[in-house]
Specification:
By secondary structure, this protein is mainly beta. Helix content is 0%, strand content 51%. The chain contains no helices and 11 strands. A hairpin with a 2-residue loop joins strand 9 and strand 10. The N and C termini lie far apart (40 Å). The model has no long low-confidence stretch (mean pLDDT 94).
């Protein structure tokens, strides 16, 4: 099993920045072998993919809505993934979830709230 714990969510003003972290624990699957992603879910909306990092990809993939503003990264030694969010807008308000996948197994974190408001 893989346990995922997100942190870093906060209330921020439009135009501000935040860094989200997702720490993984559990020894069933090596962290470096996991495909890692960030999703978000805004009130009344479906959960959407924000950024994904396959275990063998150098460059993360991003949704059009965050491309150029968000940067995803991973530190395999620390078993942690990050989401650096810049130029935040009110429409970025959502619960942000960390997601891990290995073959047919997948795991979700419990999410961290990001609120963008003046």
């Amino acid at each position: 099993q893989v346990q995922l714990a997100e942190s870093g969510g906060d209330l921020v003003q439009p135009g501000g920045s935040l860094r989200l972290s997702c720490a993984a624990s559990g020894d069933t699957f090596p962290f470096y072998s996991l495909d890692m992603s960030w999703f978000r879910q805004a009130p009344g909306k479906q959960r959407e993919l924000v950024a994904s990092m396959a275990n063998d990809e150098i460059y993360p993939q991003y949704s059009d809505s965050v491309k150029g503003r968000f940067t995803a990264s991973r530190d395999n030694a620390k078993k942690t993934v990050f989401l650096d969010m810049n130029r935040l807008q009110p429409e970025d308000t959502a619960i942000y979830f960390c997601y891990a996948q290995w073959r047919n197994y997948d795991f979700w974190g419990q999410g961290t709230q990001v609120t963008v408001s003046s």
